[in-house]
Amino acid sequence: MAVNTYLVHLHDEHQDDDASRGDVAELIVRLGGFMLMATSAGSLIAAFDEQHLGHVKAHRAVAFCGGVHVNPKGQAADRLRALFARSVARQLITRQADPQPLAGPSPEFPPGYRPLRWRDRFAS
Q1: What is the pLDDT of residues 61-92, one digit of tens each?
Q2: By C-alpha distance, which of 53, 35, 3 is closest to 114?
Q3: pTM of the predicted model, to two decimals?
C-alpha cells in the first residue's frame, strides 16, 4: 500500500475538544502514520498508509477524512513541505527515544490555536 496525505476533519462537537483530537492523532501514530499539521479550526493533516483509511474514518470523532495534495507551484507549497518535513523529523526522533508520543496544547500560541505538540527531548 501507499502512504498518502489526508485531511482529517472532526465532527463539530469534537472541534474544540483537545482530548478527541489527541485520540485521533494517537490512533494515526499507532497505525504507523505521522501528524503533519494541526489547524486552528481543529482539523488535522496526517500522512499514513491508505490501508488504514477505514480505521481512521471509523473513529467516533472523525467527520471526514480525505486525500490532500499540495500544488507544488502554490505560494505556500515550500513552507508547507518544510513544516511537514520538520514534523516528521521530530516524530521520528521522538519515536526512537520514546515510542509513546504525547499530544497537548502549548501556552506559547494565541487563544484558539491548538497545535499538536509532541514531547521532544531533542528540540532546540
Answers
A1: 999 999 999 888 888 898 999 999 999 999 88
A2: 35
A3: 0.74
Instruction: Give the length of the chain.
Output: 124
Read off the amino acid at residue 2.
Answer: A
Do the beta carbons of residue 115 and residue 38 sit within 8 Å?
A: yes
Q: Taking a C-beta distance cutoff of 8 angstroms, is the pair 21, 10 a contact?
A: yes
Q: Of the candidates 75, 101, 104, 106, which has an alpha carbon nearest to the alpha carbon of residue 88?
A: 101
Q: pLDDT tens for residues 9-48? A: 999 999 888 889 999 999 999 999 999 998 888 899 999 9
Got the DSSP string for the chain? --EEEEEEEE-GGGTT-HHHHHHHHHHHHHTT-EEEEE-TTS-EEEEEEGGGHHHHHTSTTEEEEEE----TTSTTHHHHHHHHHHHHHHHHHHHHH-SS------TTSPTT--------TT--
How far apart are the C-alpha atoms of 18 and 20, rounded to whole Å? 5
